[in-house]
Design goal:
The structure is a single chain. The chain is an alpha/beta fold and about 200 residues long. Helices cover about 30% and strands about 25% of the residues. It contains five helices and ten strands. Strands 1, 2, 3, 4, 5 and 8 form a six-stranded mixed beta sheet that branches. It has a two-stranded antiparallel ribbon with strand order 6-7.
Length: about 200
């Protein structure tokens, strides 16, 4: 289980990195201006590589795929520099949060902006660790607490019923369902006794 949490919070054209260890209070780095690292051409190339190329990896397409693969590291390092090296505290937080290994650190991206949440954060690349996502304890995206604008009616408080359905269109090639469920389970821990959680488990 992760003992360190790094969170990237996006709001009003800025991002702020925070770090929390165990039950300590979160610490915050200074806000920095958020610069969209992916233009339309980059996004189109990545979408083609992840979606269309897998359907027909033949003919001239492998050559195009190799060119895009050579860009993945560059794109990931741009994201890494923006988040973890834009401030002195950002450098410090990343170093301390990963001192005991990436597998002891979880990364969250929090925003109410769909374009920000849809960025390929899994490409985050550190010269020391290479691509971060495969080695982290977990990575998740979340709306901020300010995301709910409309007033909600009174809800029953005796029990919360949740059916968790996880899409796995590629079966064993997909991310493990436990990896997807872990952030929800962690968030529900304080009220776990009043939650009835059912997970629609995959067949494989």
């Amino acid at each position: 289980m992760a003992q360190n949490w790094l969170r990237i919070t996006h709001q009003y054209y800025k991002i702020q990195l925070s770090w929390q260890r165990g039950y300590e209070s979160p610490r915050f780095a200074s806000e920095v201006a958020f610069q969209q690292p992916f233009d339309e051409e980059n996004a189109a190339e990545l979408r083609w590589y992840l979606e269309d190329y897998l359907k027909f990896p033949y003919g001239i397409y492998p050559d195009n795929a190799v060119k895009i693969e050579q860009k993945l590291q560059h794109w990931g390092q741009q994201l890494f520099e923006l988040v973890f090296r834009s401030t002195e505290k950002g450098r410090e937080f990343f170093q301390e949060a990963t001192r005991e290994g990436l597998d002891n650190c979880e990364l969250g991206i929090i925003s109410d902006n769909a374009e920000v949440l849809n960025l390929p954060w899994e490409l985050l690349y550190s010269p020391d660790y290479q691509f971060l996502a495969p080695s982290l304890a977990g990575m998740y995206r979340s709306l901020s607490s300010q995301g709910v604008k409309a007033p909600l009616p009174a809800m029953p408080d005796d029990q919360l019923n949740i059916l968790l359905v996880i899409a796995r269109p590629y079966d064993r090639q997909d991310v493990g369902f436990k990896t997807i469920a872990r952030p929800l389970l962690a968030a529900l821990q304080p009220i776990r006794q009043r939650v009835n959680l059912k997970v629609l488990r995959p067949l494989a």
